[in-house]
Give the backbone structure.
Amino acid sequence: MLGRVNHIAIAVPDLAAATAVYRDTLGAKVSQAQALPEHGVTVVFVELPNTKVELLEPLGEASPIAAFLAKNASGGMHHICYEVADIIAARDQLAAGGARVLGDGTPKIGAHGKPVLFLHPKDFQGTLVELEQV
Amino acid sequence: MLGRVNHIAIAVPDLAAATAVYRDTLGAKVSQAQALPEHGVTVVFVELPNTKVELLEPLGEASPIAAFLAKNASGGMHHICYEVADIIAARDQLAAGGARVLGDGTPKIGAHGKPVLFLHPKDFQGTLVELEQV
């Protein structure tokens, strides 16, 4: 079921500072910051040769990463996103296997304009897993 | 400086259970478990098309992931490993930029038989960064 690792997401308290670390200290190619108010984050993409890291800063009052940063003030790895060919088939197979899909199980349109679902970290060794149909 | 994401490491309390989740629930290709006593872990590689996830279970009394699992009993994302072409040049550039290299700064031979260094998570938004010379 799992395809490529689409991205590794890192929640950060200060996006400008984090971007400077990845660009200047680590010498990586970084994008411009993009505000995604419908997702409650501002994002910078760190482009690696085989995948990308996404630096996420909370945006607005109901950001989905606010609780994570309240527990991890310095930031930290937030989720891994895997590509799948058919998100509905993936969801149904996961549910049949007993894994919990977050929300009502209906894919939402994610930050890349494609259908996404999140899986419960308790069913995946404490790792929040995102699936994105590509 | 940063090359490919070599792997994303996930610390797990029960490697057999975690392997079953990635193989059976998520439908990924997984390796046999390999005990690496010199690194204090037993590892299973989850092979994705563009990178890999490494599931790490503590091995022995002085495992480097024991403290992490004491704080995160279910497991969780532990570090990201990036490839670099020249680990000494990378180390010196990082040190010049003020980033802290863990240990005495001398690369050790990592789980893949190649020189590795770890960088202080406090200098990288709470993310433990491994560099591996390839």
